Each structure stands twice: as C-alpha cells, then as structure tokens.
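Usage example:
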Amino acid sequence: MPHINLPEGFPGISAGFTYRPETAKPMRELAHILLYEPNSLTSGERELIATYVSLRNDCHFCQSSHGAAAACHLGDASVVEKVKTDFLTAPVSDKLKALLAIAGKVQQDGKLVTPADVDAARKQGATDLEIHDTVLIAAAFCMYNRYVDGLGTWQPRDPEMYAQMGRHLAQEGYRAPSIRQPVGAV
Amino acid sequence: MPHIALPPGLSGIRSAMAFRPETARPLNALVEVLLTGPGTLTLGERELIATYVSSRNCTHYCHSIHGAIAAAHLGGDEALVKQVKTDFTQAAISPKLKALLTIAGKVQQDGKLVTTADVEAARKLGATDLEIHDTVLIAAAFCMYNRYVDGLGTEQPDDEALYRERGRRVARDGYVAVSEEYLGTLATR
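Running the assembly step on the lines above writes:
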C-alpha cells in the first residue's frame, strides 16, 4: 500500500505524477529529452541504459516499463533480457557496452567513474554528448526509481500492462501521460 | 579534471548545465518547484533536506552550496547546517523535520527502505502527505543531481566564501533566475 494517499489505480510513477502535477511536468520533460528526442544514441539504446539502471536499483515498475519501451524500439524483447542478465554478452555494440559500464558506476556513485572508463567509451566512438547523456540518464533513474519505491507505489506484475505502456512511450515519448485513467485490477 | 569538455570557468552543476542547456531547463524547473515553490515546509527546512542527502552522497559541491542556501534562509546560522550534516538528531530543528530527514536518509540509500512506521512517525509529528511526498522527491532528486555532478568529474571548489556568496544569491533570486547567468553565457558565445 502506498505510504501516502495517492490516486487509486495509478501504477508506479503515474501515481506520483497524478498526485503532484507541478513536479511531474519537469520530470516528464527531462525523460522526454533524454530518452525520446533525436540523438546520436538511438532511443532503443537509451531505453536500455534506463532499464539497466532501474534493474540495478531493483525497481520493478521502472525496469518493466522501460524494458518494454526498449523492446518496442528495438523490435526485440530478447535483447532487453540479455542486457538485464549480462550486458557484456548481449548483442549490443561495444560502444553501448562501454556506456553501460559508466551507467552502472553512476548508479552506485558518480565518483566511481574513472578517466579509463571514459577513454574506453571514447575509443569505441562515444562522443562527449553521448557520455554526458549516459551519466545523466543513469543519475535521473536513480531519482525516478527512488521516487517510485520511496512512496510505496503500486507496481503491478502484469506484463501486458507494461507492454502497453512500452508501446505508448516508444511512440509518443514522455510529455503526455501513458496512463490517463485508473487501471483496473487484473 | 572533468571527464568531458565542459565549458571552462564554471564549476559543479553549472558546468554540466551549460554544456547541455536542453536538460538544464527541466533540471532547474524541478529544483525551483521543490525548493522554492509554495509549500508548508519552510525554504530553510527544504534546503536542509537537500543538504543532508548531498552530504550522505559525499558530493562536496552540492552539500556546500545547498548548505549555504539553507544558512541564508536560516538567518546565517551555519552552525545549525553543520550540525544537521554531522548528526541531525542533536540539531535544533523540529521533531517533524527530524522524522522527515529519517525518511530522506532511507530514500538516499533505497526507496524500498522507507517503512510504514517511518511515515507514521512523521505524521504523528504533524507531517502532511504533501510534505512526505516532497521529502521523498527532494531526496530522490538529489540522488540524481549528486550523481550528475560527480559522474562528470566536475570542478568542485573548496572555497567556502564562494558558496556563501552564491548561496545568498540563490536564496534571494531562485534557481531559474540565477541559472540564466551561466546558461545565457553559452547562448551568446
């Protein structure tokens, strides 16, 4: 049960966003720019970074919804599962692997990122902007994950709900809510 | 030295924000709502939560600047800010704020550590749902800002006078207005 009186039927972050629209607006905008707007990293790659960080933070709602968005962008759910299990052996580029290594360190503590980590990513072709966005995506999901978990939000286990959310996020991005009305108990 | 080519002459989150003004805008908008918007927690109390979380994340830039902003809101009481960083249970702050700092400290580690008992304790001391919500989100947001500042290897000056001076300005003018100084610099060059 949520720790505060959140609107019923709204799962995960949609409960926090519906409860407090003033803070939802910049939080949605940030996710939209980082994950959806055109960038030299594909949306699929950026959603994989978000999914990986949310997995490491053990946030069920975020790893499921962003995993579903990544699968939709990539047209392949098995890649998402492989990244979650062991990204080093997943069928993703060496550049993305180097960026995921940086994201994993930021998830623990930004101070763990070393010049060697950044050089390794650069050698695989990562630009400064891609490194910046990787750090900020990882940092931002340390916020979203804690927000979702810290309020004790409802985090359904139904994969179909996440699949629907993932399609919306992949097609529309984050400015408009993917959950507009209470979700029926399944 | 920063890990990427951040604009010279700027430190901490300012250098990162000037590098990427598109993300700087929502980042500043969020902190503006949380720390300066209408609310029943005082501006000093909210800055103390931000300072405490940044101190637990050992992010020198953030706990110094937010500590300075908190002090500016609290009549210049730097000793109180220091006490909150060292051991808030012994600080001269309200029992309600102590209960909220306990929640913030758990969110800093992992949101799942917050218990019903933590929330009940805050409620018994008069905390509202909105205050609890904002405490959770301030703590979560500073886990982002701190990692952003540290993860890019930004310059984090040691000069206490610099933070004191900037802290007074942010306390007076707010985050968005002050951000125009360093975001504007980039736009005109």
